[in-house]
Design a protein that fits this description.
The protein is an alpha+beta fold. It is built from four helices and six strands. The relative contact order is 0.26.
C-alpha cells in the first residue's frame, strides 16, 4: 500500500470527476506518494499546519497507471537516498481502499493517525 496526502475538498472533487490529477501530474509527470514509513516526514515537510488533510490509502494492485519508486527530484533534498512511490498517470478512485482523516496537532505537526497505526 502507498499513500497520498491532499485536502478533503480536493478528494471530493476528484471522486466527482472520476479521477485525481493534481498539478504535479501536469508539471512533473507524476503524482507524489509515500510509503507508510515516509508519511509523517512528508506531512511535516510539505503540509505542516494544514487542518483539512486526508490520507488516501492506495492499493498498488488496483492501479491502472505505472508506479515507480524513485529518488526525490528536489536538489539537496535531505531524503535523497530514499525511494518514493510516484504514480505516472491519474489516480482512479477505485484504487483507493480507504480515506483516513489526517489531523495536525495544535502546533501544526503531524503524528500517524490511529487508523494508520494498525497497518503493517
Amino acid at each position: 500500500m502507498i499513500f497520498h496526502l491532499l485536502g478533503r475538498e480536493e478528494w471530493a472533487a476528484a471522486r466527482a470527476a472520476g479521477k485525481y490529477a493534481p498539478p504535479s501530474l501536469q508539471a512533473e509527470g507524476f503524482i507524489h506518494c509515500s510509503t507508510l514509513a515516509q508519511l509523517i516526514a512528508t506531512a511535516n515537510a510539505w503540509f505542516r499546519g494544514r487542518r483539512d488533510l486526508v490520507a488516501l490509502c492506495i492499493d498498488e494492485a488496483r492501479l491502472a497507471v505505472p508506479l515507480r519508486h524513485e529518488a526525490p527530484r528536489a536538489p539537496g533534498d535531505a531524503r535523497a537516498a530514499e525511494r518514493f512511490p510516484h504514480l505516472y498517470g491519474p489516480l482512479a478512485p477505485d484504487a483507493v481502499i480507504e480515506v483516513v482523516e489526517f489531523p495536525c496537532a495544535a502546533d501544526g505537526a503531524f503524528e500517524l493517525p490511529p487508523a494508520l497505526r494498525r497497518l503493517p
